[in-house]
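Q: Sequence in, structure out?
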Amino acid sequence: MEGYCVKCKAKKEMKNVENTTLKNGRKAAKGKCPTCGTGMFKILGK
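A: Exactly. Output:
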């Protein structure tokens, strides 16, 4: 799954992706940047 890394300022493929649900019921994905290891986050559709 692709996400945006704020530290690298580029879209990259996330590694160690975990799907989660936010408080408001929306789905999201958390992962790590393969280059710098910074946490990445992407809000998915309903």
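The longest strand covers residues 15-21.
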